[in-house]
Amino acid sequence: MKKNILFSILLMFTVNLLFTDQEVTLKNQESFLSLLDLSLGSGIEFPVEPVWDLLDPGIPVAIKAGLPLPSLPWLLFHADFSYTYLPLITETSISFLSLGAGSGINIEINPRWVFLLYGTAGGYYGFFNESAHNAEGGPRQGGSFYFLAGFGLEFYLTPIFSMGLQISSVNYYFGLHETGMDFIHVIRGGIGGTIHIDGFRWKVTIDSVQFSDIFPAHYKYYESNSAGTCVIRNKERFPVSDISVTVFVPQYMDRPTKISVPPFLKAGQDREVTITLLFSDKVRDLTESNKVTAEIEMEYTLNGRKRNYKTFTPVRLLNRNAITWDNAGKAAAFVTAIDSNILQFAKPAAGTAKQMEPILLDENLRIAMAVFNTLSLYGIHYVSDPNKPLYKDASKNADIIDFLQFPVQTLTFKAGDCDDLTILYCTLLESVGIETAFIRVPGHILPAFRTKMDAGEIDAFFYNTHDFIMADNSAWIPVEATLIGDSFREAWETGAGKWQDSYNKGKAEFHPVHNSWKTYEAADFSVIHSSLEFVSDRDVKEKYADELKDFIQDQLSTQIAEIKNRIEKSENKSNTINLLGMLYAKYGFYNEAESIFLQLIEKEESLAALINLGNVYFIKGRYEKALEQYKKAETLHPGNEIITRVLENINDWNNEKQPGDDSVVEYAFKKIKKLEWLYEKE
Q: Do 26 and 201 meet the contact criterion of CB atoms below 8 Å apart?
């Protein structure tokens, strides 16, 4: 009866564990009790010797508490309490109550099947169940010790419950000399169930969580790139599926971010995963570093049941100006070209440069010059803050966290070090459509910008081509931003010198901002408000005009002297003279250029001179005269690609012309976006 009650309780509990469909939320606990295994089993005992003919097979019921060791999973210590009922061939029976302890070895065949070897020793108390007395008239009872050794096979139905078959040999040292029974040796066989309290512990866990320092300026970077790593471990005997992991930083995220994880893990399998984070705009408010708590939550299915795991770990968020220089491309996040203050500062300067001649001088070069002049007028100057890491130090050590100003901050402070000024200049140029790059040389960083010229154009119109950087089929101009306040030409020459010196030593890096934006997207830090007093348009025009005049004189004086020297020595003087006319036109001296081309045409009606003279007339708005030169060129050189293309376009546009429009020629030439100059080699 007692046996039936115990098995009924065990069966009900087992069914509940196996088939309950409710979600389980696990607690992260480690305690002595959480390691216990509680077993209940029964079976049959066969007496063997020395009095097997006096005893019939009996029934044992055993309760066992086992303690597996996490550090030695193959070793198990246990304590046993059992009751054994053995009937005699006479109308009586014997009962044994035993208590012992022992150890065993677990041999795992696979995660669900385990082979057991074990031994137990302890004491017992035995008595006759019916009235029986000894010679003195007292009840027949007593106690001594016993030994047990056996083996078994166990099968895990769930992480919490297993069933097993066990066979053991038991010796009861009895001492009833009157009956000749000094000991009883029995073979015990039975089945039982074990509740593994260890199964309630977290065994599918998230461990080894490592967050890198979070840089608010790169908050968009962490949406698809690593903010840290963690390891999902399945220490269960069963596979887990439907794995889903989310990460949440309550103060700086609107909702948890679901990270990419393997949906399935085999028993005993680990997998390292990357943590990504989708931050909210609040991260932009961080003016000081802050340590916060990240919540990492995992849901998964184990043995058909939904389970939930949650852990917490600290994360350090740095201030919004923090950066490390292990990769110069990171600075692209600070190039906030759509900031309203930046646009208000740069666009008037760009407008001034576009309106003023010479229009044939590369437009990007002219705008960059005007922006540089505007910064000088504004009063920006180089300052190295002794309370912050120097760029030359931070650039050598990726562990040093530097303080990089956003462009609007530099405009507000009217000062910054080399990296601050580089970011400001790049941002201003990007805001007016000019591509920029970071140049990194040992201990220093400076900006460069992309011109609209290719290698052929700079060879034709600049005497020192070493001042350019050729990249992406375009000519780039390096500028030393710390020389704001000096002339643009000096800043250009200094920047070019630093680039060439480091490039020749193999120590120069070139980082286009647009390429870097693909990884480090520009941060929206319009949260940084500033009230700025901008430079007047009149001052910008005057400063730019003076700078441009000096620049042109510098270019012309050197190149004109060189070309005139080549004219004297050249066998084909007309081509060299044509080059001189192009040089004058390039820098806005159109009358001088016209005079030179007319002289060439009178002498030999050169194709190059005809086309280039037509271009000069076009620039001066004399469209009919321009067309006249192109038609002369067509007559002398039929099939020339440039002339054919221009004249075909004029015919096409003539068909589009509406009454009241400009003349056909003027209408056609207004469609031309870029003049094609004919430069013939000497």
A: yes
Q: Are 568 and 449 in contact (CB under 8 A)?
A: no
Instruction: State the residue for tokens 């029964």.
Output: 42
- Its sign, for the CA torsion 454, 457, 462, 463, is positive
Q: Is residue 643 part of a domain?
A: yes
In this structure, is residue 675 part of a structural domain? no
Same domain, 164 and 265: no
pLDDT value at 6 more than 50: no
Task: Say whether pLDDT at 446 is over 90.
Answer: yes
Closest Cα to residue 682, out of 559, 569, 560, 558? 569
The total number of structural domains in the chain stands at 4
The full DSSP string for 238-269 is S-EEEEEEEEE-TTT-SSPEEEP--S-B-TT-
pLDDT at 137 over 70: no
b/e burial code for range 269-292 (CB count within 10 A of at least 16 → b): eeeebebbbbbeeebbebeeebee
* Residue 271 near residue 242, CB atoms below 8 Å: no
Q: Which CATH number do you get for residue 616?
A: 1.25.40.10
**Arithmetic mean of pLDDT over the chain:** 82
Which carries the bigger pLDDT value, residue 421 or residue 107? 421
Tokens of 553: 């004189």
Domain shared by 115 and 261, yes or no: no
| Residue 563 covered by a domain | no
What is the rounded radius of gyration, in angstroms, for the C-alpha atoms of the chain?
45
Please tell me which residue, 374 or 623, carries the higher pLDDT value.
374
Q: Say if CB 640 and CB 607 are below 8 A apart.
A: yes
Same domain, 365 and 416: yes
Does some domain include residue 565? no
Range of the domain at 111: 2-200
> In this model, does residue 461 exceed pLDDT 90?
no
Tell me: do 378 and 414 sit in the same domain.
yes
Pick the last residue of a domain from 537, 561, 582.
537
What element of type H or E holds 210? strand 204-211
Q: Is 641 helix (H, G, I), strand (E, B) or coil?
A: helix
Same-domain status, 306 and 356: no
The CATH number of whichever domain residue 174 belongs to comes to 2.40.160.20
- Specify whether 282 is located in the same domain as 381: no
Between the CA of residue 415 and those of 79, 257, 422, 423, what are the distances in Å?
77, 39, 12, 12
More confident residue, 114 or 679: 114
| Strands of 157-196, DSSP E | 161-176, 181-196
DSSP annotation of 682: -
Report the distance separating Cα 484 and Cα 127, nearest Å: 106
| Domain closes at, from 265, 288, 317 | 317
For residue 44, give the 3-state DSSP assignment: strand
User: Which tokens is 681 given?
Assistant: 């080699």
Q: 458: Cβ–Cβ under 8 A, 6 or more apart, which residues?
A: 451, 465, 468, 475
Same-domain status, 214 and 312: yes
pLDDT, residue 231, reads 97
50 confidence band (pLDDT: 50, 70, 90):
low
Please state, in angstroms and rounded to a whole number, the distance separating the CA atoms of residues 313 and 356: 60
Query: Residue 199 phi/psi, 5° resolution?
Result: -65, -20
Strands (E), 343-382: 381-382
Instruction: Name the 3-class secondary structure at 211.
Output: strand
What's phi and psi for 168, nearest 5 deg? -145, 160
Q: Which tens digits make up the pLDDT trace of 388-403?
A: 666 666 666 667 899 9
